[in-house]
Write a structure and sequence with these properties.
The chain folds into 2 domains: about 1-55, Alpha-Beta Plaits (2-Layer Sandwich), CATH 3.30.70.20; about 75-215, Alpha-Beta Plaits, CATH 3.30.70. The chain is about 20% helix and about 15% strand. The mean pLDDT is about 90. By secondary structure, the chain is of the alpha+beta class. It has helices at about 40-45, 65-70, 90-95, 120-130, 140-145, 175-185, 210-215; strands spanning about 1-5, 25, 30, 55, 100-110, 115, 135, 160, 165-170, 195-200.
Length: about 240
């Protein structure tokens, strides 16, 4: 996103609309820190600038990734889904992506006000890959990774900053705690935050993985994201 310095009159009404604080005062006008901007388009879509000083230039690779992961109206070429480009794990009752004996893991990196760079996302993906997880194929983050090592296929992507991105994978139930402990370690080595989601198929009204998580010192919040689902549930 850019601001036309010839049109900007320095009202600064656009500043509160940036979810990552990239719009700043520069003397008598507003400017956008291009390194901090995630290309979410919130400032432009708000319509707050009546003089048309805000404008969106054409985005090229790899900067276009910022828009694809931050703008909910920008579809991912790899999935055709807008926003972060994934249906997420919560659709499991319809998609059947996670079977008995498997645990799904999602690491949602970044938040409005914090965001995340792909360099940090790569650190987390490498940590997961070391434990042999299976990365979800229908996910735009996976599209960017070497799924054997967790490394970015294109190293130039690392500096790109996005509002948030979700790493999705699965592992065997018996390895789940081991993987979560690895994520606990890597969380101290990244310059952002992430939320951690775990999915496990219910059995007789209970979630089998919960006792193991509690025994390992984790505090699962079953009410965090419980999805009843829509459509026709799979029987597998």
């Amino acid at each position: 996103m850019r601001i036309d310095s010839e049109k900007c009159v320095g009202c600064f009404r656009c500043i509160p609309y940036c979810p990552v604080g990239a719009i700043k005062r520069s003397g008598d006008i507003a400017t956008i820190d291009q390194d901090e901007c995630v290309e979410c388009g919130v400032c432009l879509k708000s319509g707050i600038c009546r003089l048309g000083a805000l404008y969106q230039p054409e985005l090229k690779w790899p900067r276009v990734l910022r828009s694809q992961f931050s703008d909910p109206l920008a579809p991912h070429p790899s999935t055709g889904i807008g926003g972060r480009g994934t249906e997420e794990m919560k659709t499991n009752d319809v998609t059947g992506r996670f079977k008995d004996g498997e645990v799904g893991i999602a690491v949602e990196m970044g938040r409005p006000g914090i965001a995340s760079r792909f360099s940090d996302l790569e650190k987390v993906a490498i940590a997961l890959a070391r434990h042999g997880v299976e990365f979800e194929t229908h996910n735009p983050v996976t599209f960017l990774l070497d799924t054997k090592t967790g490394r970015l296929k294109d190293p130039t992507i690392g500096k790109e900053r996005v509002l948030s991105a979700i790493i999705e994978c699965k592992t065997k139930s018996e390895k789940a705690v081991e993987v979560l402990k690895e994520l606990q370690k890597i969380s101290k080595e990244i310059d952002t935050v992430f939320s951690l989601c775990v999915i496990n198929k219910c059995k007789e009204g209970e979630v089998p993985i919960i006792p193991e998580l509690e025994k390992a010192g984790f505090i699962p919040r079953i009410n965090g994201k419980t999805n009843m689902g829509l459509g026709r549930p799979l029987r597998t």
